Amino acid sequence: MESSFKKKSNRGHSSYPAGTKISLRNNQLLISTGVPSLDSLLGGGLAVGTVLLIEEDNYACYSKTLLKCFLAEGVVSRHSLFLATAGHDPEEIWKNLPCAVDDVNETGASDVNKPPEGDQSMKIAWRYENMPKVRPAAVKFGHFFDFTKTVDVARINKVSKYEYKSRDTWSGQDGDSLCQTRSSLNPEYRNLLNSIRKVIEENGHSTTNKEIKDRVILRIAIQSLESPLWCNHSDEDHSLTMFLYYLRGILRSSFAVCLITIPSYIHQDSTFINRVERLCDTVVKFESFAGSEKETNPIYKDYNGLFHIVRLPRLNSLTSFMPETLDLAFKLRRRKFLIEKLHLPPDVGEISSDGRKDPLSKNTGAYGCGASLGGSKLDF
User: Fold this and answer.
1) CA distance 100 to 64
2) Average pLDDT, stretch 272-300?
3) In this structure, are residues 185 and 239 in contact, taking their beta carbons and an 8 Å threshold?
4) pLDDT tens digit string along 165-203?
5) Based on the number of CB atoms within 10 Å of its own CB, is 237 exposed (0-12), middle (13-18) or buried (19 or more)?
6) In whole angstroms, how far apart are CA 340 and each of 91, 248, 294, 310?
7) Cα 230-234-237 angle, rounded to 5 deg
8) Measuring CA to CA, which residue among 309, 240, 253 is closest to residue 281?
9) What pLDDT band is residue 298 in, cutting at 50, 70 and 90?
10) Checking CA distances to 308, which of 74, 130, 322, 364 falls within 20 to 30 Å?
């Protein structure tokens, strides 16, 4: 008699694109941001089909570093890359992408797994000598990057990369575009949106194209959007909000993830920034210590600034993933870009553990019947 129990197959696992993993929380396809500590704060990584918004620091230094890590992670994972910028030459950004610290060689095995040379190999028992060797997988989710070294240009050219320079006509004017007739979008944002849509549809990144078997993730990086280098905007202009609305609709049906940096500090209207944040899935903010009093404060000597999580996505769930703490700080080192819990030294003698003033720190004099320990009404 044939049993009704069948072994569960794992056929779907082989169809996952390279450089991705499945979230155990909401079964969402994830990619790495290029900063492993940020991946853990976001619940494992960035969900495919979403928008990550980064509110820049005053000098746009650390947000640009995170953007480079995002693109460099795509090079290691062999994802397609799309870069849109206004203030920098795209080729300069490609040439300055950091190199992965624990990157593997072209054969797929790291130098650690190479057998030792000569007769220095360790002798093992004869019964284990002919057993098959178990090697760790070469594929890794998320990498650390060495900012003193850059990725080989030849390796970058092996992945599909696309560029959009502000005030260029890279994509031309698509008359049949969905957004061509929208008067609320300025021409610059309309061309950028059409370029992204064109790359997704023509290069097999759309989920509607069922004929493609080996999917490749598209990483979209847009630098300093809404800055004066793109075009002159005001708080009454709704081009940015409409652009994000259309962009998120396009990404929802594609194997693509978009990272956008904006200088939110140039806008005086907080209501406008709140609308922009609600139109993105994940929003984070850099607060650099450069040029502030905290830069010389010895309490913050181990950090370069504060890191704020403004918004987390709710995907296939009623609630969003919440990290253990929101008191975060970041520090940039030669071989790592870390985001961790803010650890401040204790201020012993002034503030107690519950946040109140420590009464023992005051000079109370003699502890007799007439001595006061804080002005209590029960003194006698």
Assistant:
1) 17
2) 91
3) yes
4) 865 444 334 444 444 445 567 888 899 999 999 999 999
5) middle
6) 32, 29, 18, 16
7) 90
8) 309
9) confident
10) 74
pLDDT digits (tens, 9 = 90+) for 222-273: 999 988 878 666 555 688 899 999 999 999 999 999 999 999 888 878 898 9
Token reading at 165: 């320079």
